[in-house]
């Protein structure tokens, strides 16, 4: 009969020896095929091919690993370069921001200086305009006074004593003879400059101009009151009347400052309540 035994033949793992009938041989052949297929045994040449493929795969994996390492190194270098670029950009941005801030500060300072100079020039212009209007008013009134004096032969003689001269001025003012009242007040200021009623005299002088609509001249006189006689009871009244004069000159913004000064600095003034009313209207958008 045939017997199954190992063989050193290069063409297979197993070989058969005859040891009986064909039927027995076939039985052993079927068993051999089953063992081969079920056990996973493969021919020698197939195993060699698989080893070559595995070796090739390992070599390819090694090359891929080397490529991956190179790519990682390149990527790391790119990341480091990007970080350096970002750091440089941040530094440049910081320097640019600091420079811009310095430039803005310098520009802001220059702009503030220009604004202050402009305000100074505007104030100077307004002051010049006031002086011009005052000069025009004085010239006009001087001409009218000269005409009056020539008409009545030089005018009525004024009293000499302080009390009489002051009463004379008051009477003329009440009768709305503002020019005569003003002449008496001017005479009083020259002859009795140390009199305790000087604040009232100057204030009344401003009132004569105010009643005649000579707003600029009135402002000049009222200013003398709170500048030269700040502790007088007329100081707050004069500030209020300056506000009123500015309103008549259509300068409500300036007038508001004087009304506010009356309320805050001269609470005992007889015009405090009126100053508050004016301010209330102004806050409502009205120019009284």
UniProtKB/TrEMBL annotation:
PROSITE patterns: TPR. Residues 161-283 form the Outer membrane lipoprotein BamD-like domain. SUPFAM superfamilies: TPR-like. Pfam families: YfiO. Residues 54-131 form a coiled coil. The chain crosses the membrane at residues 28-46. Signal peptide: none annotated. Keywords: Coiled coil, Membrane, Signal, TPR repeat, Transmembrane, Transmembrane helix. This is Tetratricopeptide repeat protein. It comes from Microvenator marinus.
């Amino acid at each position: 009969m045939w017997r199954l035994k190992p063989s050193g033949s290069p063409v297979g793992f197993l070989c058969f020896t005859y040891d009986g009938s064909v039927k027995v041989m076939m039985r052993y052949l079927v068993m051999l095929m089953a063992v081969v297929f079920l056990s996973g045994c493969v021919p020698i040449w197939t195993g060699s091919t698989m080893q070559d493929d595995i070796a090739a795969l390992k070599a390819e994996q090694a090359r891929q690993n080397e490529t991956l390492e190179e790519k990682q190194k390149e990527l790391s270098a790119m990341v480091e370069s990007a970080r350096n670029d970002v750091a440089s950009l941040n530094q440049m941005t910081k320097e640019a921001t600091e420079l811009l801030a310095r430039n803005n500060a310098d520009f802001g300072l220059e702009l503030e200086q220009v604004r202050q100079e402009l305000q100074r020039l505007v104030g100077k212009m307004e002051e010049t305009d006031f002086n011009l209007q005052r000069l025009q008013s004085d010239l006009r009134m001087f001409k009218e006074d000269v005409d009056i004096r020539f008409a009545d032969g030089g005018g009525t003689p004024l009293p000499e004593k302080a009390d009489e001269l002051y009463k004379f001025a008051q009477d003329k003012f009440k009768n709305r003879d503002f020019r005569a009242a003003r002449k008496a007040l001017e005479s009083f200021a020259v002859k009795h400059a140390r009199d305790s009623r000087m604040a009232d005299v100057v204030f009344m002088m401003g009132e004569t101009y105010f009643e005649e609509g000579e707003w600029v001249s009135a402002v000049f006189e009222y200013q003398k009151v709170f500048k030269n006689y700040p502790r007088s009871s007329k100081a707050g009244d004069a500030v209020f009347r300056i506000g009123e004069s500015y309103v008549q000159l259509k300068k409500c913004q300036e007038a508001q400052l004087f009304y506010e000064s009356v309320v805050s600095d001269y609470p005992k003034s007889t015009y405090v309540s009126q100053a508050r009313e004016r301010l209330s209207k102004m806050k409502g958008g009205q120019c009284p």
